[in-house]
């Protein structure tokens, strides 16, 4: 099947079985290996991508379901300057093995795009589908809140 999508901002055609997992097709045909496989069962969030700006587990989706949609992987945030969330999570020591980080960054980006001033609880809820075995979460949440605060400060500047 020819799957036509906007992958990381580029119109893209992926020739792959529509019934294959989107996770596998992105990694093997789309060469977006920032999408990780953890549990393969929708529990860990390592495979998170944004479908039309909404976080989704690519291990639970058929590739054919992406046809006609925008799909963003972590690579979309690495073109040019790193996204502020990436710098903030690194600066806060919120990365250890890094396996969860792409999914966490995408979930956090979706949150901040929709809710630029989230409370700590709202950040926790937004990241509740992304498991991290290393960091204890506090530093990641601190980093997301620091990005929100910095972007508010910039918007207030004349
Ligand atoms: S690999 Fe998809 S949720 Fe864990
Ligand atoms: S940094 Fe290792 S799983 Fe999150």
Question: Which terms summarize this structure?
Answer:
158 residues; alpha+beta; Ubiquitin-like (UB roll); DNA polymerase, domain 1; 2 domains; 5-stranded mixed beta sheet; 5 helices; 5 strands; globular; binds FE2/S2 (inorganic) cluster
Task: Describe what you observe in this structure.
The chain has 158 residues and is α+β, with helices and mostly antiparallel strands. It has two domains: 2-77, Beta-grasp domain (Ubiquitin-like (UB roll)), CATH 3.10.20.30; 84-156, DNA polymerase, domain 1. The protein is 35% helix and 15% strand. The protein has helices spanning 22-28, 84-91, 101-114, 120-126, 138-156; strands spanning 2-7, 10-15, 48-51, 54-57, 70-72. A five-stranded mixed sheet has the order 2-1-5-3-4, with helices on one face. The N and C termini lie far apart (52 Å). One FE2/S2 (inorganic) cluster (FES) binds at residues 95-100, 132-135.
Describe the SSE topology:
Layout lengths: L1 E6 L2 E6 L6 H7 L19 E4 L2 E4 L12 E3 L11 H8 L9 H14 L5 H7 L11 H19 L2
Parallel strand pairs: 1-5
Antiparallel strand pairs: 1-2, 3-4, 3-5
Number of strands: 5
The distinct bound ligands, ions and cofactors come out as:
FE2/S2 (inorganic) cluster
Figure out the total of helices.
Answer: 5
Bulk shape: globular
Order of helices and strands: EEHEEEHHHH
- The first-level CATH class of the largest domain is given as Alpha Beta
Distance between the termini: 52 Å
- According to CATH, the fold-level topology of the largest domain is Ubiquitin-like (UB roll)
* Adjacency order of strands in the biggest sheet: 2-1-5-3-4
CATH superfamily of the largest domain: Beta-grasp domain
* Cα gyration radius (Å): 16 Å
